[in-house]
Fold this protein.
Amino acid sequence: MARPLSFSNATHLLRRAAARGRKEEAQQLTEMGLEPAVDFLLRDPAPAPSYRTAATRNERGQQHREISQLWLNHWLTTPTPAAERLVLFWHGHLTSEFRETMGAQGIDFWQQFATFRQLGYGPYGDLLKAIARNPVMLLYLNNAQSRKEHPNQNWARELLELYTLGPGHYTEQDILEAARAFTGWTVRLSGNQRPREASANVAFEFVFNRNWHDPGEKTFLGRRVRTGDEVLEILIEHPQTYLFVARKLLRFYLCPEPPENLVQEGARVFRAEGTRGFLRWLFTHEAFYSPAYRNALIKSPLEYLIGLWYAAGIEQVNFEERPGRALYLSLAAMGQIPFDPPNVAGWDGGRAWLAESPFLTRLNLLAGFAGRERRLDLEVFMDGADGALSLVKPEAQLL
């Protein structure tokens, strides 16, 4: 028998899981009960639209506007919005920067997001293996140019420092040995086309170049290996990987400094049951609904906009028209550009979102909702909402 879920807790669950919702959706979850409501939110992601562009390979700015618009409109209309908030998490964890990944096209980034969506709920090892072969990641962290004569260490370093073990659990020698193992992991255009001649709709694909690979024996974390796949298997087996990523998941879904007992418990669930199992454990845990963790997170600009647009009944934004172009530019002013985190560590988040200039940009955007006051359904968007004027309250910024 399902445990009861109060309306207040249903609004909290929707806000945290999906970053969007309306009163009737919270009521629907309440009627389901806790466990069925969580399972409903965590069901398999609805497919996103395909992406094609009329832009050339050099017109990357246009491509970026197009994929940003496509993703946000999908988040606004998909029946599985929790999957899109999870895509945002993986995007900030397994980062790639659009402006820094020369050669990669909008289609490549769109396909990377499809990987986050397709594998995001499953075992972390499956997602890690896919991202290790992802053309955007290989281009972004320079592994696509890594050869046995001069192994590039960027991918190996971030794999250990940011994506699996975290600082203090490996040595510089481990990075060097891993870099040797990943030599020859590179990319080419589909159909082996030349970049100068190819359409921007032609994506890169992974290829292993045996001539570039260092086949010699390496010692990684005290184990003898030869290939990048063996390095990944060691990291996927390592308990520290699950502690490190579970802590980041709790910071994203629960609070900035999660208690150590929840980190330890969450890591065990994450390792045994994958990301969906972890989120089901968290969203059905009594601590998740504790007053101590309610309104404990600050909405990122994307979460703020998605929640507010959805509350206002907006289902589509257009970054190509004049009002939409200004909105697109405001994303940079608020500090969160889709597909383009500021660096390999992702967004700092937290109070940084509410620095003076980014916060003023948020408030200025409220003028765009003039005339929609009566349609605003803020029950899920924020606690204590009482009409449109509530949007200037601190609670409007909290998740």
Notes: The mean pLDDT is 95. The first strand starts at residue 185 and ends at 189. DSSP finds 16 helices and four strands in the chain. Residues 301-397 form one domain.
